[in-house]
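Below is one protein, fold included:
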Amino acid sequence: MMGEAMARDTSKEAVTPPPAAGMGDAALLKELVAHLRDNRTELREEWARRISDADLLTAMTPDEIFSEATAVYDNYVDALETGSVEALQAYARDLSERIIPRGVETHEVLGIVLLLRDVLARSLFEKYRADPDLLNRILDAYEPAANRIAVTVGVSFVQERERVIRQQQEAIRELSTPVLQVRERLLILPIIGVLDAQRARQLTEQLLQAIRANRAKVVVIDITGVPDIDSAVANHMVQLVKASRLMGASVIITGLSSDIARTLVTLGVDLTSMRTVGDLQGGIEEAERQLGYALPALEDLDDELD
């Protein structure tokens, strides 16, 4: 009798195992994904509401936020299901490209991803609160994947933001170092602002291209608006003069301040290859003489520079 009872008890345990007993991470994630798909509408709406309540993505309209939330949600769930973040990564880059010009900041993007993780975690707590053991195993499977997704989105946004910043810096540098053709074979390069090594390299490239395109014979570089230069930049200037000569153009440097002159002397920079003139007007006059032009009237020169 006791053996029969034990057999019945064992049989009962085999028929009614604990919920999800023996399920691995893959099976748990599959159950999790099914839950997120079944409750997509309410979870997505809750997430969009939380975004608005947290004053995130304020540069976007509510409709835009809901549309992007829908796309991010679906990509998020797909990443959980497949374990691949490539599609989500591509979407994150595309989203970043669209929203960065509108002033969306990095903390906002990270904030909305963390809010989504919180919304989904709360949903899991609600669904599995009656079974703490299963809840813990679900969360153990979910959290590493969710953290990986959050990092992927954050890194994609930061990389895109850095790319945009680099483009903006490049555009600013190009605008701040215009190469002007005053007349045939004569170029003027007015430099304003801080002249660092990177900008000096870009300046060299722009000028050499302009010398070739315009078949210039004389270039006047005015550094009146440069507050200071260091040895590295000074050496770049020397190399610029030499490279211009190889391109067939002589260089006249104007606007050399007393402070910069003393710095160059102190640094021991070789200035023998540089032709310097006090101011821009004097430099242009010297260039005119080298080219054999009659000196223009001052008002005519102003009109050409405008």
